[in-house]
C-alpha cells in the first residue's frame, strides 16, 4: 500500500511515529483527509494482519450486531474480545484499528482503557476518529495524537491533475468543493452523480446566503424534509463563509458563521428543519 497523500506537516509526523510507534495513537482529522487510510498504511507497513474494529448496530431481528460504519457504535464485546488477542508474547507487531473510535460506547472505552493500562509488547492500538474530544480524557492521556491536515492548495492542484481531470472549470470546482480533502477529491472524481450533488449543494448554499428573501425561502422549502441534506447545505454555507472570512475578515461574517453553526447543531439535534432554516434567512 502506498503512503497516503498528506500535508507535509502530517507526513513528517507520520514518519516520526512510524519509527517509534506508541502503544496507542489517535489518528484524527476532518472527514475526507484519509484518517482510516493512514491507519491501514501503518498496520500494513508493520506487517500486521489488518484487524479493524468497526461500528455496529443491532440487526432488525435484534439477535445480532451488524457492521454499520455510518450509524453504528463500537460495541463493548468487540473491545473485550481483544483481551484474548493480546495475551501471550507477540513475536511481530500486532496492530488493532478502532474505526470511528469516538463512537465507542462508554463501557467499550472503559474496556479499552484497561488494555492501555496493561500494555503488551508489540501490540498497538490505532484510534481513528474525526472527533478525538469524545474519547475519555484518560484514554487521550495514554495516547499520542497524529492530526491529518487538509492538503495545501498546491498539493490539491497536483492531485487533481494526477486524477486525470483536464477541464479547467471542473478542476477549480473540485478544489473548492473538496477543500484539500484527498479522499473527498477521489470520490468527486470517480462518482459523477456525487459531484453533481455536491455542486448543486454549493449553488444552493450560495443562494441561501446571497439571494433575495423569496429565493431563500425556496431553498428552505427544498430542504425542509431531509435532515441529512439540510445539514450538508448548512455545512456548504459554512464552508463559503469560512472562505470569505479567510480572504477578508469582517465581524458580520464571523457572526454569520456563528449563526450557521448554531443552526447546524439544532438541526442535528432534531429541531424542526424548516423553522431553523427560516429563522436564519429572515
Strand coverage percent: 5-15%
The Rg value, from CA coordinates, equals 21 Å
In DSSP terms, counting alpha (H) and pi (I) runs of 4 or more, how many helices? 14
Kindly report the oligomeric state of this protein: single chain
Describe the fold and architecture.
The structure is a single chain. This protein has 282 residues and is of the alpha/beta class. The chain folds into 2 domains: 8-148, Rossmann fold (3-Layer(aba) Sandwich), CATH 3.40.50; 191-281, no CATH class. Helix content is 56%, strand content 11%. Strands 2-5-6-1-7 form a 5-stranded parallel sheet, with helices on one face. Helix 9 packs across helix 10 (192-210), helix 10 packs across helix 12 (227-247) and helix 11 runs antiparallel to helix 14. The relative contact order is 0.11.
Amino acid at each position: 500500500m502506498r503512503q497516503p497523500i498528506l500535508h507535509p506537516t502530517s507526513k513528517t509526523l507520520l514518519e516520526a511515529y512510524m519509527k517509534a510507534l506508541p502503544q496507542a495513537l489517535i489518528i484524527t482529522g476532518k472527514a475526507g483527509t484519509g484518517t482510516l487510510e493512514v491507519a491501514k498504511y501503518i498496520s500494513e507497513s508493520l506487517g500486521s494482519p489488518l484487524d479493524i474494529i468497526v461500528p455496529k448496530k443491532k440487526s432488525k431481528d435484534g439477535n445480532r450486531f451488524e457492521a454499520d460504519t455510518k450509524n453504528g457504535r463500537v460495541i463493548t464485546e468487540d473491545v473485550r474480545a481483544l483481551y484474548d488477542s493480546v495475551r501471550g508474547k507477540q513475536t511481530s507487531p500486532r496492530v488493532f484499528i478502532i474505526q470511528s473510535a469516538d463512537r465507542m460506547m462508554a463501557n467499550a472505552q472503559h474496556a479499552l482503557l484497561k488494555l492501555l493500562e496493561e500494555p503488551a509488547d508489540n501490540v498497538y492500538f490505532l484510534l481513528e476518529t474525526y472527533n478525538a474530544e469524545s474519547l475519555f480524557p484518560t484514554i487521550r492521556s495514554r495516547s499520542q495524537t497524529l492530526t491529518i491536515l487538509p492538503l495545501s492548495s498546491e498539493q490539491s492542484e497536483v492531485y487533481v491533475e494526477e486524477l486525470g481531470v483536464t477541464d479547467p472549470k471542473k478542476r477549480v470546482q473540485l478544489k473548492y468543493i473538496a477543500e484539500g480533502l484527498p479522499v473527498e477529491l477521489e470520490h468527486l472524481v470517480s462518482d459523477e452523480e456525487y459531484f453533481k450533488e455536491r455542486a448543486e449543494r454549493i449553488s444552493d448554499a450560495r443562494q441561501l446566503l446571497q439571494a433575495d428573501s423569496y429565493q431563500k425561502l425556496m431553498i428552505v422549502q427544498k430542504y425542509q424534509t431531509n435532515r441529512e441534506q439540510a445539514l450538508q447545505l448548512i455545512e456548504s454555507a459554512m464552508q463559503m463563509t469560512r472562505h470569505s472570512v479567510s480572504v477578508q475578515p469582517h465581524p458580520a461574517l464571523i457572526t454569520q458563521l456563528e449563526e450557521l453553526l448554531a443552526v447546524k447543531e439544532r438541526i442535528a439535534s432534531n429541531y424542526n428543519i424548516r423553522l431553523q432554516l427560516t429563522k436564519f434567512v429572515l
